[in-house]
Amino acid sequence: MFNIERWHEIFEAISKNKLRTFLTGISVASGIFILVILLGAGKGLQNGIEKQFERDAAGIIEVWSNTTTKEYKGLNPGRQIQFRNSDYSQSIQKFEDKLDKRASTFNFWGAVISYGKESGAYQYRGVDPDYGDIENVTVVEGRFINSRDLAKNEKVAVIGMKVKTDLFKGKEALGEEISISNINFKVVGVFTDPAGEREETRAYLPLTTVQRAFGGGDKISNLFFTLKKTDDYDQALAQSRKFTEDLKQLLKSKNIIAPDDDSAIGVNNTVEDAKQVYDLNLYIRLFFWWVGICTIVAGVVGVSNIMLIIVKERTKEIGIRKALGASPFSIISMILHESIFITTIAGFVGLLASLLLLEFVGPMVQSEYFQNPQVDFTVALTTLVLLVFAGAMAGFFPAYRAAKIKPIVALRDE
Length: 414
Prior knowledge:
Elements: H1 4-16, H2 18-53, E1 60-65, H3 85-95, E2 99-115, E3 118-127, H4 131-135, E4 138-142, H5 147-151, E5 156-160, H6 161-168, E6 177-180, E7 183-192, E8 202-206, H7 207-213, E9 222-227, H8 233-254, E10 265-269, H9 270-313, H10 315-323, H11 328-361, H12 377-403, H13 407-412
């Protein structure tokens, strides 16, 4: 099959048509280059989207209260619904077997937090222990709020890194006391958040302490739940939708809200959000594949046309070979070798150039929704296989045509 004489013929044919071969190679190389760059860009979009969802635990269902819009059981519309501890406890009691994490919060905005002579306006929240996992915070010093803090109404605080930086100016924060609206709390932890500095301008306190110390009674602001994981995404989506609907009906019944009043209780189901975003990302990547493959096909068509011209120019040579006993397979093999060689070498150059560009330029691209564009080994290998196949297809039809040439007709060709 591959022998010295065959390779000599290939290089001789290429050397006779250097410009034509170069331009053909450029079309193939640019096709694979564009495909890999587009795939890398698609991966960058996916990484950016996944980074956004790292802000919180996967599959959060957040619930909050709004104002009623419909009359129900003699109560006028326009009532402000207020969740209380009993709403949270009844929800847990009814759905205990479905829940993975659960938490309730009571929020205050723009409170003055001070340490020594330093002070600033920050948000603080009364939270349950699971809230740290739901919010996906990382405790870098100390610990998070625990069940003992809630049971004992401890005056302890877990502060964000931004709060520590602003108030402590490089000093150790653990064990120190900060003042929140003129009430002292002991710092037991410092956290960071994947969402960045905005989320780190918070202080987390035990929910029971906040309700008692700041006159909240048994009021709560939000309910947070995550469900037990399933292996199938569609099943997880269906499960979360059913849970959301059942939870809304429970809360509506308890708070005397019309069953069809969809505005009184707000729900954010991130499982649904994730499906929409990942579906969009899938469509973008499929579009990139389509554009890239179409570009490669254009290059391959160029290779095929060049091979047809080569067959036409070498018609007499092919006729002589067949007259001397060359088999159709040897004729096809000769044309295929040249086609595959040109396509593979050009494609490899395009592949290498695109990988180098992604390696060196990709990390320099800084965007919230586009991070670390790259192509993994499997995709690179797939593109290489596509190249070899494309080269074979580009040469097959001209080669088959050459094999069908009759020696007597070929010898008459001028």
